[in-house]
Each structure stands twice: as structure tokens, then as C-alpha cells.
Write a structure and sequence with these properties.
The chain is mostly beta strands. The protein is about 0% helix and about 40% strand. The chain has one helix and 23 strands. β2 and β3 form a beta hairpin. The termini are far apart.
Length: about 300
């Protein structure tokens, strides 16, 4: 029954750095800006063949186990606002304290023309104010993205706000990153970042909608709609890697679901595994992350 449905993604333990430094066969280092040498927090480090990875901490540091399935692999480094970078790694090689320098991604922003005439706010996404039964909990570096479809086929303008219904359990005040994507991936999956700046926010409490103002970023909503996503991160000097998934510790926010849609509009992302459509359904209603956005719509 829907009322008894629980959807959990428990998180991996955040092991202390000193304990890791004593172990062998690890890739350790820091991700920095190529020009300024400033650390890049919350960059994802993916081992392509292993389908595992890590997330840099607030100071750009990461630790990752060496490949075990293959003797040679590629380390794919991705960070918001930077060019995707790949490194070659060979099992047994010395990969301690490496510095990965990422070049900035050149972004061309189209001019934004704001016409206040005939414009009114329109809500896209979840309309219910009461969440469905169940919980959605992520791991650091993982994301849940909900497609805010333009169901009314309106001419859209700027994205004003995005909102997340954060549950009262877990750690609702932990920081998370807001992501906005175009639906231009395979099978209309989330793909291209629309919000190219790192927007880190934190809710004051759980059990209610938490709204983030995106009007300063002048994001024009695509006509078909767009994805609103929550990305779980780690704060302070903690490390996270998907290689230590045998030990589970609840961490971060818990999103609540909605069952108001007949189709699947939610995708999940895990480091090393990419995007996957959430297809959980019951009685003709689909399990979707409870998110929404307010955009300008033209009459």
C-alpha cells in the first residue's frame, strides 16, 4: 500500500581522514582552479570502469580506492562551472597527494529581455502541500531531479524560485546544493546545467516547503520545462567515497515524495553510475520527488 511505502537510499559512512591515510592503494589529492589554485569543493571524481567515485570536500580534498576490477582506468573529474577533465590511472601506481587543475568552462549567456507586460507567476511541479508516505534520502554527491513540465504550454520567462519539501526527519538543516538542468540528455534525462553557479543553501527546519530565490541568476525556462534537483554534499573536512558502502549512516536531508502524477518525472543520480529514471508506482500513481518552481508565464 502507498501509505506504507518507504523509499530509502541510505548513505555511506563518513570515515575520518586519518584512518584512510594509513591504508594503501588509494588515490588521494585535491581539485583546484587551474588559474587561481583555489580549491573546488563538491567536485565529483568518477572511476569509469569501476562505476565508483568520490566527492571532494569543502576544501577540495578527496580520497578514492584504486581500481579493483581492471588494472587501468580513467578518472573523470566533473565540477560545476568547469570543463570535464579525465586522468589515466594504473593500479599500483603512486597516486598520493595529486593536484588536479580544472579549467573554467566558458559560458555564453544570452541577453535577457524582461517584458513585464502580460506576465504573471506560474507554479510548475508539485501542487500538493501534503506529502505522500515515504522518504527519499541521498548520499553525498547523489542527486534527485524532478521535471517541472510546461503542462499548460505557456510561453515561459524567468525562473523565479524553486522549492523542496524537506521532511522533518534526518538532518533537515544540513546544507545542500541546488541544481537546474535542461532535459536534453538521453530519454530526456537531466543533462546540461542551467545554473552554472554553486548555490549552497540550508533549511531552517523540516516538515515544510523550503524555497530558494533564483531570480538573481536570470535563468530563462525552456519551453518544454526543466529539472529542479537537490544535490547532497558534505560539509567541513569530511570525506566521502562510494567504496565504503558496507557501512551505512543516515545523513543530510530527507525529501518527501508526491503521488499526484501519473507519469515518472523524477531521476536519481549516483557518482559513477549516472542518471536513472525512478519508475516506482502504485495504483497508477508514480513516486516523484516533491519539488516545484515558480516561473514567469506570458498570457
Amino acid at each position: 500500500m502507498i501509505k506504507r511505502l518507504l523509499f530509502f537510499l541510505l548513505v555511506g559512512s563518513l570515515l575520518p581522514a586519518l584512518g584512510w591515510a594509513q591504508q594503501e592503494g588509494r588515490i588521494t589529492g585535491r581539485v583546484v582552479d587551474e588559474k587561481t589554485q583555489d580549491p573546488i569543493p563538491f567536485a565529483s571524481i568518477n572511476l569509469r570502469e569501476e562505476q565508483t567515485g568520490a566527492l571532494t570536500n569543502e576544501y577540495g580534498y578527496f580520497q578514492l580506492a584504486m581500481p579493483t576490477k581492471v588494472t587501468e582506468d580513467s578518472v573523470i573529474v566533473m565540477a560545476l562551472g568547469y570543463k570535464r577533465t579525465a586522468l589515466f590511472v594504473k593500479r599500483g601506481a603512486n597516486m598520493e597527494e595529486i593536484i588536479i587543475q580544472l579549467p573554467k568552462q566558458a559560458i555564453e549567456l544570452a541577453p535577457v529581455v524582461i517584458n513585464e507586460k502580460g506576465v504573471k507567476p506560474m507554479q510548475m511541479g508539485a501542487h500538493n502541500n501534503s506529502p505522500g508516505a515515504g522518504m527519499i534520502q541521498g548520499m553525498p554527491g547523489s542527486q534527485y531531479a524532478f521535471m517541472c513540465k510546461n503542462d499548460k504550454a505557456k510561453k515561459l520567462g524567468l525562473i523565479r524560485t524553486v522549492s523542496f519539501f524537506i521532511g522533518e526527519n534526518g538532518f533537515p538543516r544540513e546544507p545542500f546544493r541546488v541544481r537546474i538542468y535542461k532535459a536534453n540528455g538521453n530519454y530526456n534525462a537531466p543533462n546540461e546545467d542551467m545554473l552554472t553557479e554553486s548555490v549552497i543553501v540550508s533549511a531552517a527546519r523540516g516538515g515544510e516547503w523550503f524555497t530558494v530565490d533564483l531570480s538573481p541568476y536570470n535563468l530563462v525556462a525552456p519551453e518544454e520545462g526543466f529539472y529542479v534537483a537537490m544535490e547532497w554534499i558534505v560539509s567541513g573536512d569530511k570525506f566521502y567515497t562510494t567504496n565504503f558502502m558496507d557501512n551505512y549512516t543516515p545523513y543530510g536531508q530527507i525529501l518527501r515524495p508526491t503521488f499526484e502524477f501519473k507519469d515518472s518525472r523524477t531521476w536519481s543520480y549516483a557518482i559513477g553510475r549516472g542518471w536513472n529514471l525512478v519508475t516506482l508506482a502504485n495504483g497508477g500513481s508514480h513516486f516523484n520527488a516533491m519539488m516545484r518552481a515558480e516561473v514567469d508565464a506570458y498570457k
